[in-house]
Every structure is written in structure tokens, then in C-alpha cells.
Amino acid sequence: MTSLIPPATKEQPMSKSTITRLLPYGPVVALLIVAVHLGWEHTHGGVRSHHLLARADLPSVSNWWGLLVLPVLGWLASRSASRRAALDSRAAARSMAAFAGALLVGVALSASFITGHASAASGIFLAALAAGLVLPTYRAEYIFGFVSGMSFVLGSVLPTIAASIGAAISVVAHFLVRPGLARLLRTARA
Length: 190
Description:
- The structure is a single chain.
- The chain is mainly alpha-helical.
- It has one domain (about 20-45, about 60-190).
- The protein is built from seven helices and two strands.
- A two-stranded antiparallel sheet has the order 1-2.
- Helix 3 (about 65-85) packs antiparallel against helix 4 (about 90-115) and helix 3 (about 65-85) packs antiparallel against helix 6.
């Protein structure tokens, strides 16, 4: 069977060397974010710790953990994006858009949290969870962007926990609910 698209217009996947060059950027960006954050905190009264659920009776998590958490998330995001880009030339742009969108959500949530607008923070977080029903927010690019956007306010660990909850909701929606509904619709039509 011949292709309807002439060979000259077929999209070619990225070469292996391009993918290999993309991999280090996620962890490098993450280390830069963490270094700036920890450097600023160190020179302004010391590196902070954050209590779980903002309750003093619960354990606290130091922002030093960002040196491990954020580079790992950056590496996972780079690796995931590079794998998809090897198969689809437009995947790299979609991964960057996913990172940027999640970064903006994280920054907006952080800004509303800092300024004391609890209702706005709740709305943004709930909207991000709802977006996971439609968008694949379980992907590493979304998680890395969200955590990067929130790391200056809450460190890396607590936003990673929040992003994991959102990712779990997105996984259930994309891999259980959607296929189940599709199967149900197919059987109803038959």
C-alpha cells in the first residue's frame, strides 16, 4: 500500500543526537532554580522548612530536599519529552507548552497563596485538578512545571506531593474512566 503523503513532506523524527543533547537541560534548569532559591533563602535568614498541611504538629520538610527532588523531576521530564519527540516532531513543542502552562499555574497558585487569597488559591488548585481530567497532567513535564512554579514559595517536596495527587487523578481519568466510557458507548451502539 502506498502512502498518500509524498516522502518529501513526511515529518521526520528527531535524530538520536538531538535527543541526547536535550536530556541534560531539564536537570540543569532544575539545579539552577534550586540554586537560586536556596542561595536567596540562605542569605535572607536561612533555608526554610515547611510543615505538612501547614500544621506545626506535623513534620516539616526542608527546602534542601529540592537539590534532589527538582533535578530528578527535570530529568524525568527531559527523558519523557525526548522519547516522545523521537517519535513525533511536534511532541517537543507540546512538551514545552505543557511545562510552560504548568509553570504558570504553579506561579499563579504561589502568588495567590503568598498574597493571602485563599479562595483564589483553592480555585486555581481545583481548576488544575479538573484540567487533569482532560489534559495528561500525569506526564512529567506538567509535574516539573508545576513544582518549578511553586518551589520558591513552598520548596519542592510539598508541591511534588500535590502534583502527585493531581497526576493520580489524571491517570485514573485517562487510563480507567475514558476507556471504560468508550467501551460502554461501543456496547451501547452495538
